[in-house]
C-alpha cells in the first residue's frame, strides 16, 4: 500500500478521518487488523526517513552559514564603494550642466540668425521673382495661355504676400488686381460657352483657373447667370400665355359675338394656381439635370452651386411672385377680383372700407403655400447631400414670397374672424306686445346657444389655418387674435343679455344696476305695469326662456374650456415639432444666434425631415423664436391660460347670466312684496260690534299666498331644464342638485325680501300683528314643504307677532337669546309700541 503524504500538509488535517478513509480503501478480503498493522509500519518507516533527511539537511545548512556571512560583508563593502563613485559622477554632471546651458543659448541665437537670413534670402528671391513676373506677365497674357497666366498671377500673389507691405511694390499690387480682373473677363465667355454646351473638360479647366486666382465667387456668378435666363423664361411664360389668351379671347369676341360661354371660358387664361405646379415641376426637372451634370463637372462644388442657383432664382422672381400671389387671393372673391386687389392691398388700406378679408382669401393663399411646400420637400430630397446651412438658406428662399403675408398673419386672421363673427346671427331681443315676449325670448336664447359651437368651429379653423400656413411660427400672434375675438364675441353676448331684461319684464333697478344700465324710474314703472298684464302661460314661457339662458352660459363655459385645453395640447405638440436640436442644429432661447452642425455625415434623415416651414423661418429670427419658445414652454403648465382675458370674460358672463335668471325668477316675488310694509291692515284698529267676531282674517292674505303658490310651483318650472341637463351627458344627481340649488336660492331671496318689508313696518296694531302672524305662518309652511329651514329672524317675527301685546314685554325679557333674535324682538316691540324699560 502506497502512502499519499499530501493530506498531512493540510491545515485542517484530521487523523481520525484519515484513518477511517484508509480503512474504507482496503481490499474486502484483507482483515482489518492486518491492514492497520501494515499501515502503522509504513507510517513509522516514512517518519524515520523524514527525520533522517531533516537531520542531514540541517547539518549541511550549518556548514553554509559562515560562508554566507563572509559574502554579505563583501557585498556591503562593494555597495559603499559604488555609492562614493556615483556621488562623484553626479558632481561632474552638475558642473557640465551649467556650461551646457550657456552653449545651448548661444546655439539658439545662432539658429535664429540663420532662420532670419534664410527668410531674408527667400524674400529677396520672391522680390526678384516678383519683379521678373511683373515684367513678363504681359507676354504671358499675350500668348493666350490662360492656365499659365493663372499660374503666373498666383505666383505674383504669393510673392506679394511674402514681401508684405513694401512701398516699392504698391504698383505691382494694383497691377495684380487689374490682371486678375482681366483674366476673369477672359475666362467668362469661355466658361459661359462651356456651361451652355455642357463641355465638362473645358468647364473643369476654367474652374481650375478661377480657383487658382481665388475667384470662386466668379464661378458662382457665371454659373448662376447662365442658368438663370432659361428659368426666368419659364417664369415669364405665364404672363406670355396670359397675353396670348387675352388676344385670342378678344379676337374671338369680335368675330363671334354670339359664341357660347363655354367656348369663351376655354379661351380665358388659366389661373396662376393651376399653372404654378407645372412651373415647379419644370424647375425641379431643370435642377435635377443640373445636379447630375455638376456632380461630374464640379464634384467639389455642386453641393453649393445648384442651391445657390435656386436662391438667386427666387430672389430674381420674388417681387413678381408676391404680386401674383396677391392677385390669386383677389380672384376668389368677386368684389376684390373686380378691383384686382388682394390681401396686401386690403391690409394697406388701399381699398373701400366695406371690403374685408374673407376666409376664401386666406384659403387661396394656403393652397398656393401647400404647392410650394410640396416643391420644398422635393428640393430638400434633391439637395440632401448639401450642408445644413446651405439647405436651410435654400428652403428659406423657396418660402420667401410668402414672408410678407406671414408677417401680417395675426392681422389677417383677426380681420377674418372679426368678419365671420359679424356674420353670426346675434340680434338682441326686441320688445314685443303682450303674449309674444316668451317667443322672442326663446328665439333669442336659441340664437345665442347655436352661435357658441359656430364660434368654436371658427376658432378651431383658425388654429388649423395657422398650422397649415405658418407651421405654428405665428402661434403667439394667433393666440392674441383668438383672445381678442373671444372678447368681441362675449361682448356681443353681453349686449344681447341687456336686451333680454326688457323682454323678461325685469327692470335694471331690481338688479341693483339702474344707474349703470341707464333705466330711469318711469321705465321701471312701465315695465312693472306690463308685467301685470302678462298671463300665467306667458309668465311660464318667460321663466322657461330665462332658465334656458343658463344652458347658454354652461355651453359657453364648457366649450371654451375644451377649446382652450385643445389649444394647449396643440401648443405642446408645436413645442416638440419646433425643437431644432433633433436634426443637428439648435436654437438656444438664451442666445441670439443659431448653432448649426456643419458635419453633414452626422445629420440623420429624420433630423433633415424636421426642416419644416416653421423651423426654417425661425432660424434667422432669434428674438421671435425666443418669444415663441417661451410661450410654448409656459403652455406645458396646467395652470396656463391660452386665452387669459377670454377666460375671465367667460366667467363674468356666467355671473351675469346667473344674475339675470335670478332676477327673472324673483321678479314676481319682488312685485308682490313691493308694498307690504305700507299695507293699511297693519295699523287698522278693532271695529266695535254687537257680536263676538274675530278681529283679523284667519286666512293668509293674497300677496303671501301668491308668493307661496309661486314658490311651490318653482320645482315644476325647473324640472324641464333639469331633465335637459340629465339628458346632455349629465347625471341625475347633477340635475337634481341644479334644481335644488336654484329653488333654494329663489326661496331664500323671497324670504329675505319679505323680512325686509317686515322691518319697514312703522306701526302695528294687535289686529295687524295677528294677521301678519297668519301670513308668516303660511310662508313658513311653504318653506317647510320645500325642505328649507326657517330663518331665526322669521321665527322671531312669528313668535312676537302671535304673542298678545300685554305679554310681549315679558316674553322678550324672559328670553335668554336661544329662541328669539334680540334685534328683531326689539324692533317688533317698537312697532307694537311696547316699552321694554
From TrEMBL:
<dbReference type="GO" id="GO:0017119">
    <property type="term" value="C:Golgi transport complex"/>
</dbReference>
<dbReference type="GO" id="GO:0006886">
    <property type="term" value="P:intracellular protein transport"/>
</dbReference>
<dbReference type="GO" id="GO:0006890">
    <property type="term" value="P:retrograde vesicle-mediated transport, Golgi to endoplasmic reticulum"/>
</dbReference>
<dbReference type="GO" id="GO:0000139">
    <property type="term" value="C:Golgi membrane"/>
</dbReference>
<keyword id="KW-0813">Transport</keyword>
<protein>
    <recommendedName>
        <fullName>Conserved oligomeric Golgi complex subunit 7</fullName>
    </recommendedName>
</protein>
<keyword id="KW-0472">Membrane</keyword>
<dbReference type="GO" id="GO:0007030">
    <property type="term" value="P:Golgi organization"/>
</dbReference>
<comment type="similarity">
    <text>Belongs to the COG7 family.</text>
</comment>
<keyword id="KW-0333">Golgi apparatus</keyword>
<dbReference type="InterPro" id="IPR019335">
    <property type="entry name" value="COG7"/>
</dbReference>
<keyword id="KW-0653">Protein transport</keyword>
<dbReference type="Pfam" id="PF10191">
    <property type="entry name" value="COG7"/>
</dbReference>
Amino acid at each position: 500500500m502506497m502512502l499519499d503524504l499530501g493530506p498531512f500538509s493540510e491545515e485542517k488535517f484530521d487523523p481520525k478521518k484519515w484513518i477511517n478513509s484508509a480503512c474504507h480503501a482496503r481490499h474486502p478480503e484483507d482483515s482489518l487488523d492486518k491492514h492497520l498493522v501494515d499501515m502503522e509500519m509504513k507510517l513509522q518507516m516514512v517518519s524515520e526517513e523524514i527525520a533522517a533527511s531533516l537531520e542531514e539537511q540541517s547539518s549541511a545548512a550549518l556548514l553554509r552559514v559562515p560562508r554566507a556571512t563572509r559574502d554579505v560583508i563583501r557585498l556591503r563593502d562593494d555597495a559603499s564603494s559604488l555609492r562614493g563613485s556615483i556621488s562623484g559622477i553626479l558632481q561632474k554632471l552638475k558642473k557640465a550642466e551649467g556650461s551646457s546651458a550657456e552653449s545651448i543659448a548661444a546655439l539658439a541665437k545662432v539658429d535664429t540668425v540663420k532662420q532670419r537670413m534664410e527668410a531674408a534670402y527667400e524674400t529677396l528671391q520672391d522680390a526678384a521673382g516678383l519683379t521678373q513676373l511683373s515684367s513678363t506677365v504681359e507676354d504671358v497674357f499675350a500668348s493666350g495661355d490662360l492656365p499659365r497666366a493663372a499660374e503666373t498671377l498666383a505666383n505674383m500673389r504669393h510673392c506679394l504676400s511674402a514681401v508684405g507691405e513694401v512701398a516699392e511694390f504698391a504698383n505691382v499690387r494694383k497691377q495684380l488686381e487689374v490682371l486678375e480682373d482681366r483674366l476673369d473677363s477672359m475666362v467668362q465667355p469661355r466658361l459661359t460657352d462651356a456651361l451652355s454646351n455642357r463641355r465638362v473638360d473645358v468647364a473643369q479647366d476654367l474652374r481650375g483657373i478661377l480657383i487658382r486666382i481665388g475667384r470662386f465667387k466668379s464661378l458662382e456668378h457665371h454659373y448662376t447667370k447662365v442658368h438663370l435666363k432659361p428659368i426666368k423664361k419659364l417664369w415669364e411664360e405665364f404672363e406670355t400665355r396670359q397675353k396670348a389668351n387675352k388676344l385670342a379671347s378678344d379676337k374671338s369676341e369680335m368675330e363671334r359675338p354670339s359664341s357660347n360661354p363655354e367656348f369663351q371660358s376655354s379661351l380665358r387664361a388659366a389661373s396662376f394656381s393651376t399653372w404654378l405646379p407645372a412651373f415647379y415641376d419644370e424647375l425641379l426637372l431643370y435642377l435635377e439635370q443640373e445636379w447630375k451634370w455638376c456632380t461630374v463637372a464640379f464634384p467639389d462644388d455642386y453641393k453649393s452651386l445648384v442651391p445657390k442657383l435656386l436662391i438667386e432664382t427666387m430672389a430674381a422672381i420674388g417681387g413678381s411672385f408676391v404680386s401674383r400671389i396677391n392677385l390669386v387671393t383677389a380672384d376668389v372673391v368677386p368684389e376684390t377680383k373686380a378691383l384686382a386687389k388682394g390681401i396686401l392691398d386690403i391690409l394697406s388700406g388701399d381699398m373701400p372700407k366695406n371690403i374685408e378679408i374673407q376666409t376664401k382669401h386666406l384659403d387661396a393663399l394656403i393652397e398656393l403655400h401647400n404647392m410650394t411646400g410640396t416643391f420644398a420637400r422635393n428640393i430638400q430630397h434633391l439637395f440632401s447631400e448639401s450642408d445644413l446651412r446651405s439647405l436651410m438658406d435654400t428652403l428659406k428662399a423657396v418660402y420667401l414670397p410668402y414672408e410678407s403675408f406671414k408677417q401680417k398673419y395675426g392681422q389677417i386672421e383677426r380681420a377674418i374672424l372679426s368678419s365671420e363673427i359679424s356674420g353670426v346671427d346675434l340680434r338682441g331681443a326686441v320688445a314685443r306686445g303682450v303674449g309674444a315676449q316668451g317667443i322672442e325670448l326663446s328665439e333669442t336664447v336659441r340664437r345665442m346657444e347655436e352661435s357658441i359651437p359656430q364660434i368654436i368651429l371658427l376658432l378651431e379653423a383658425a388654429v388649423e389655418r395657422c398650422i397649415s400656413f405658418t407651421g405654428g411660427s405665428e402661434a403667439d400672434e394667433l393666440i392674441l387674435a383668438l383672445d381678442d375675438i373671444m372678447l368681441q364675441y362675449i361682448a356681443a353676448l353681453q349686449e344681447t343679455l341687456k336686451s333680454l331684461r326688457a323682454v323678461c319684464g325685469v327692470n335694471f333697478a331690481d338688479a341693483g344696476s339702474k344707474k349703470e344700465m341707464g333705466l330711469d324710474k318711469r321705465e321701471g314703472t312701465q315695465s312693472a305695469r306690463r308685467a301685470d298684464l302678462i298671463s300665467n302661460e306667458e309668465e311660464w314661457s318667460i321663466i322657461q326662456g330665462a332658465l334656458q339662458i343658463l344652458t347658454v352660459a354652461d355651453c359657453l363655459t364648457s366649450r371654451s374650456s375644451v377649446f382652450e385645453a385643445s389649444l394647449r395640447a396643440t401648443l405642446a405638440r408645436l413645442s416638440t415639432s419646433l425643437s431644432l436640436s433633433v436634426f443637428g442644429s439648435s436654437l438656444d432661447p438664451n442666445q441670439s444666434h443659431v448653432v448649426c452642425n456643419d458635419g453633414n455625415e452626422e445629420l440623420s434623415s429624420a433630423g433633415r425631415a424636421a426642416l419644416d416651414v416653421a423651423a426654417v423661418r425661425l432660424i434667422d429670427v432669434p428674438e421671435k423664436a425666443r418669444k415663441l419658445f417661451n410661450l410654448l414652454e409656459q403652455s406645458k403648465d396646467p395652470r396656463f391660460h391660452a386665452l387669459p382675458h377670454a377666460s375671465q370674460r367667460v366667467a363674468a358672463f356666467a355671473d351675469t347670466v346667473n344674475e339675470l335668471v335670478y332676477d327673472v325668477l324673483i321678479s314676481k316675488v319682488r312685485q308682490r312684496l313691493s308694498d307690504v310694509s305700507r299695507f293699511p291692515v297693519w295699523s287698522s284698529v278693532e271695529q266695535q260690534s254687537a257680536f263676538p267676531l274675530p278681529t283679523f282674517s284667519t286666512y293668509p292674505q293674497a300677496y303671501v299666498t301668491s308668493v307661496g303658490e309661486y314658490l311651490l310651483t318653482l320645482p315644476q318650472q325647473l324640472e324641464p331644464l333639469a331633465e335637459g341637463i340629465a339628458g346632455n351627458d349629465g347625471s341625475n344627481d347633477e340635475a337634481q342638485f341644479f334644481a335644488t340649488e336654484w329653488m333654494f336660492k329663489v326661496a331664500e331671496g323671497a324670504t329675505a325680501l319679505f323680512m325686509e318689508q317686515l322691518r319697514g313696518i312703522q306701526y302695528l296694531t294687535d289686529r295687524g300683528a295677528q294677521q301678519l302672524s297668519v301670513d308668516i305662518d303660511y310662508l313658513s309652511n311653504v318653506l317647510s314643504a320645500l325642505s328649507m329651514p326657517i330663518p331665526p329672524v322669521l321665527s322671531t317675527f312669528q313668535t312676537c307677532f302671535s304673542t298678545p301685546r300685554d305679554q310681549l314685554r315679558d316674553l322678550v325679557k324672559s328670553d335668554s337669546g336661544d329662541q328669539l333674535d334680540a334685534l328683531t324682538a326689539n324692533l317688533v316691540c317698537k312697532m307694537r309700541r311696547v316699552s321694554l324699560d
